[in-house]
């Protein structure tokens, strides 16, 4: 199985970012200073890289080499530019299907979602740079390798991705309990993007405001929510069911 590798050393990490390597997570030693660190900080801001400042002991566990206070974990897959992902999908099929994950941070949930997405014909998954689960060995394993078959785009802001999809003729639907309309009332025989929310907070209010439609999953038990990977599977299979019936 492929798994995330590491790049260590300030200059090496700077060059990796400039080369647009798919960095999952950047760890920087607490209190690290200097001109190269300032250059690194600027690049982190420009590229929206998820970063944690940690004690040197954490870095020593990640990397036994002379890391100079900086270690970057590299994804086993490359990410796709949003515009290219959407354009190619719309050219391939009249009813493209996209999945936006607003804050899904658990790697096993992420892997399970990717696995279902691959099985239901999702053309691309879109996640934010910050706050999203990384693509690492656990993600690869939980997805049963499907992560290598479904294009994934990382974006600075989910909002911008929604606006781009809408401008490309894709209907954006938020799956949320904050809707009176049922998932089963919607027509999925058109280009569609589903939004699924974070494990604890769901879809953010600002995202809900700009979605074209909102729909809930019918619930009859006493528990009022589902695991996000299960909810994603239900929604994606309803899309597939409608398209197969058509």
Q: What's the CATH topology label of the largest domain?
A: Alpha/beta knot
Physical arrangement of strands within the biggest beta sheet: 7-6-5-9-8-10
> Low-confidence segments, ≥5 residues, pLDDT <50?
none
Looking at the structure, what is the overall shape? elongated
Order of helices and strands: EHEHEHEHEHEHEHEEHEH
- Structural category is alpha/beta
The largest sheet is: 6 strands, parallel
SS summary, helix count: 9
Give the C-level CATH assignment of the largest domain.
Alpha Beta
Radius of gyration, taken over Cα atoms and rounded to an integer in Å: 19 Å
Number of folding domains? 2
CATH architecture of the largest domain: 3-Layer(aba) Sandwich
Helix content: 25-40%
Model description:
The protein has 246 residues and is an alpha/beta fold. The protein has two domains: 5-74, 60s Ribosomal Protein L30, Chain: A (2-Layer Sandwich), CATH 3.30.1330.30; 82-245, Alpha/beta knot. The protein is 38% helix and 20% strand. The chain has nine helices and ten strands. A six-stranded parallel beta sheet has the order 7-6-5-9-8-10, sandwiched between helices. Strands 1-4-2-3 form a four-stranded mixed beta sheet. Helix 1 packs parallel to helix 2 and helix 5 (107-119) runs parallel beside helix 9. The longest helix has 18 residues, at 228-245. It is elongated. It starts with a strand and ends with a helix. The model has no long low-confidence stretch (mean pLDDT 92).
Give a nutshell description of this structure.
With 246 residues, the protein is α/β, with parallel strands linked by helices.
């Amino acid at each position: 199985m492929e798994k995330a590798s590491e790049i260590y050393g300030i200059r090496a990490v700077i060059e990796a970012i400039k080369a647009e390597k798919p960095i999952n997570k950047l760890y920087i030693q607490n209190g690290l200073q200097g001109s190269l660190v300032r250059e690194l900080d600027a690049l982190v801001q420009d590229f929206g890289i998820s970063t944690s400042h940690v004690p040197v002991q954490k870095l020593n566990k990640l990397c036994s080499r002379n890391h100079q206070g900086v270690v970057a974990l590299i994804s086993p897959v490359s990410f796709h530019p949003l515009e290219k992902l959407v354009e190619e999908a719309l050219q391939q099929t009249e009813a493209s299907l996209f999945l936006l994950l607003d804050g899904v941070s658990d790697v096993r949930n992420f892997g399970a979602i990717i696995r279902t997405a691959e099985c239901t014909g999702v053309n691309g998954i879109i996640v934010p740079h910050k706050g999203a689960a990384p693509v690492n060995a656990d993600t690869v394993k939980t997805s049963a390798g499907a992560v290598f078959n479904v294009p994934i785009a990382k974006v600075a802001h989910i909002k911008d991705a929604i606006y781009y999809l809408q401008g490309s003729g894709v209907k954006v639907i938020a799956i949320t309990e904050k809707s009176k309309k049922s998932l089963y009332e919607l027509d999925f025989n058109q280009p569609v993007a589903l939004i699924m929310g974070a494990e604890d907070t769901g879809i953010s209010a600002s995202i809900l405001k700009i979605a074209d439609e909102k729909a809930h999953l019918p619930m009859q038990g006493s528990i009022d929510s589902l695991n996000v990977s299960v909810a994603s599977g239900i929604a994606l299979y309803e899309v597939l069911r409608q398209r197969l019936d058509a």
